[in-house]
Amino acid sequence: xxxxxxxxxxxxxxxxxxxKYVAGTKMVLRKLFPKTMTTNGRIRFENVxxxxxxxxxxxxSKSHLMVKVSCKRKDQRxxxxxxxxxxxxxxxxxxxxxxxKYNFKMYIFPPRFDADECQIDLESxxxxxxxxxxxxxxxxxxxxxxxxx
Length: 149
What we know:
By secondary structure, the chain is of the alpha+beta class. The protein has 5 helices and 8 strands, in the order ββαββαβαβαβαβ.
């Protein structure tokens, strides 16, 4: 589990969050992520659906894992929920691209409350990670790029 701060560049809000491993390649997240991260983009849900099938292929150059995200401070909860509602309305997810400095990219999506209304293709998610995304809280995936030897 990683606990730290994420600043959403789009909404200009900062949140204290926990990111927990759900499925995929097991990694020590607190060693992988810096203490503070900033989003540096947004991704359309349909673009995620076109990329997910590629994650089924095994690769020696990168690993991936599914994560769930939760807000650590009650006083930030209302803004946190509102930010994810706006992402949901825009059919987009957050992107944190730290590939050049920390060798990873993270994509965070709004919570899903109903399998019929999931933003991302659930069948692809199940094929890749063997499970559904967590219900009722933001979730996402991390691509970790292994250093070349």
